[in-house]
Amino acid sequence: MELEVRHLRALCAIADAGSLHQAARRLGVSQPSLTTQLQRIERTMGAELFRRERTGCRPTLLGRAVLSRARPLVDGMSDLVGAAMAEAAAARSGGPALRIGSTASRVIGGWLRGLRGRLPGADISLQVDVSARSLIGSVAAGRLDVAFVHEVEGCPLGIPDGLTQRVLLEREPQFISLARDHPAAAQPVVDLDDLAGDRWMVDPSVDGEWDGVRRVLGAAGIDPPVLQGDYLTAASLVVLGEAVAPCQPTSGPRDDMAIRPLRGDPLAVRLLLVSRSGADTDPVYEELETAYRDAARRAEQYHRWLLRHRSPLAHTS
Q1: How far is it, in rounded angstroms, from Cα 186 to Cα 193?
Q2: What is the pTM of this model?
Q3: How many CB atoms lie within 10 A of CB 223?
């Protein structure tokens, strides 16, 4: 059997509901049908993904690993379908085009939603890229109107002539993601020394990411083993306790992963909105700011950080 998005959606529903019965109700299928589907998925995987217990279903070690990869795919498919439908509707309306780009961020969904509400006749397109420099280059070349990018502290991006930058946040701290049973997860704030024996995972394709992490670790006098790969893979390794990884402070809470601030906030990025000089970016910037506030408010630890540092982004507009 070839796995499809509907199979991954079923696995997520079972994990969220904690039982086949409740998951079947949420999915609108019968319990026997869902049980048969799960058995077929498990045969394809070659091992059990859930332990059936009297109190319900619990993911196995393999199940947790599969779920950590499945959730972003399921969410991404939902976002893709929603965005495609909205763009098709905008195209039919014949409204003006707004081409936005962004590095990976938790605020993209709220930003798009806000822009579509504020500019109902606009044909809004989105390009996500791990490389901030690539996005800035697309703005300079006229392929994008604006780009929301992250500039790693100590690794300036360099804004070409003819472009303008607006700073959303001068310094956004980067938190650390680690397994729930990691000893440091018991603390509200994590010291770098507590992670000296862990494998760190960074994405070398993110502009400045590896250089920034290497600089911070070197300044702390620690030299842990470093793995290189995308952050989707990193999440699966973090859940299994195989690595720790920097993450955005707006990262949402997860049952299988701990998100903690680092003491002293040694890792940080600057958040910028880049556009061509003279372009009216007020509506785009204002909706981005609103989306960021909303994301920060949902991330309780980060919201407290913003309040502690008296950031205007901690307050509703």
Answers
A1: 15
A2: 0.68
A3: 10
Tokens of residue 138, six digits: 């697309």
What is the rounded CA–CA span in Å between residue 210 and residue 228? 9
Q: For residue 62, what are the contacts with CB-CB under 8 A and spacing of at least 6?
A: 45, 47, 48, 49
Q: What is the distance between the alpha carbons of residues 91 and 211, in angstroms, rounded to a whole number?
A: 42
The model's pLDDT over 66-113, given as tens digits with 9 standing for 90+, comes to 998 888 888 778 767 655 665 565 566 566 789 999 998 989 999 999
Query: Within 13 Å and on the Cβ side, how many CA atoms surround 183?
Result: 8
* C-alpha to C-alpha distance for 104 and 110, rounded to whole angstroms: 13
Q: How far is CA 188 from the centre of its chain?
A: 21
| Identity of residue 53 | E
